[in-house]
């Protein structure tokens, strides 16, 4: 084993011990970013982002560090820090503390920079379907040419568990493969906030800003976490402007669209609104089937097609929920291999994750869903306007009302601005025919139908 590999192994053992001595959030914020760069005569040198970072470690975690270094290096172990933000200081510190050490060049430092990326969250492991095709295509384009207009910044939003983190990390991994000279950093808004608060406490705000302004590709997950954090937003605004000015790539994820980031500084929201913005929707039925079949194949467990289909049809909200439900079934299959997993048992497992009682489908519910999916004002549905988008939405209401309620054509027409039964039947047939030839329209209708059954 090489000296470098031996050092990495030793430090990983230290991290394992530190994880047991701290809570998960503290570990991810203060220990995961650290890189071991040298070990000589019991003296361990760690690279940390800034000087304030090392000061906080020494003031808050001195006992834990002393204990862990004593266990893994020896009772006379000593600790030194170098800083990522200033290569010259880094070089001097290394030479001063460890005279026989070999300082890294700037390019070597970039290659060993801890980007906080999960190797499993790549494009190759990202399941694609119509609901996320555009988001993935833009992500791959961003990774191919980071910082290139007009795809900088890139803003991905959607509900929890639909793949925002996976896609953003995949960008980082691809950039590191295609452009190893670039410094990539993935950070959650919570980590950014915690680091900023500590930097302010130790009067190291300038170092904090400087560190982030050195990044070539900055990925910030769950940016909505900065809502209400005024001073942190101001710091992020400085970082954002600097990186954008230098054509450095910025990738942001959120559970809200930019227009719904209320509580965030208007000037920052304005910058974010200038991003290429793509929504990640809940997984459609095709994607859910694909994920389930792939996961079942990987497990080696055989499940009936009807079981897979039942899960796909009923667990609709997000991929995390889908995989969790399947994991429960697969675990049972492994511990009770002689027990057949049938629909009755599957229903019992699925009911623990989602409600299998479907809400009543009413005219009011249909109108609410359609106006939301078609992005039209609810008041226009009953209006006399012939605007194309409103007419399409009105016809969709007619189609769904006839298909999913017991209302007569006359009753449906009456609730849609006193239209007659012939008009309703025409609207129904128009939608039925259009769904056969217009893929985008069919997908919109499928989304509306799925929403009705949630």
Task: Provide structural commentary.
The chain is α/β, with parallel strands linked by helices. The protein has 4 domains: 3-112, DnaA, N-terminal domain (GMP Synthetase, Chain A, domain 3, 2-Layer Sandwich); 123-279, P-loop containing nucleotide triphosphate hydrolases (Rossmann fold, 3-Layer(aba) Sandwich); 285-353, Helicase, Ruva Protein, domain 3 (Orthogonal Bundle), CATH 1.10.8; 363-452, DnaA protein, C-terminal DNA-binding domain (Chromosomal Replication Initiator Protein Dnaa, Chain: A, Orthogonal Bundle). The protein contains 21 helices and 8 strands. The strands form 2 sheets. The protein has a 5-stranded parallel beta sheet with strand order 5-6-7-4-8, sandwiched between helices. Strand 1 and strand 2 (43-48) form a beta hairpin. Helix 13 packs across helix 14, helix 13 (285-299) runs parallel beside helix 15 (319-335) and helix 17 (363-373) crosses helix 21 (439-452). The longest helix has 19 residues, at 3-21. The radius of gyration is 27 Å and the shape is globular. Mean pLDDT is 86; it is low at 85-106. Keywords: ATP-binding, Cytoplasm, DNA replication, DNA-binding, Lipid-binding, Nucleotide-binding. Residues 334-454 are annotated as: Domain IV, binds dsDNA. ATP binds at residues 161, 163-165. One of its GO terms (biological process) is DNA replication initiation. Residues 150-284 form the AAA+ ATPase domain.
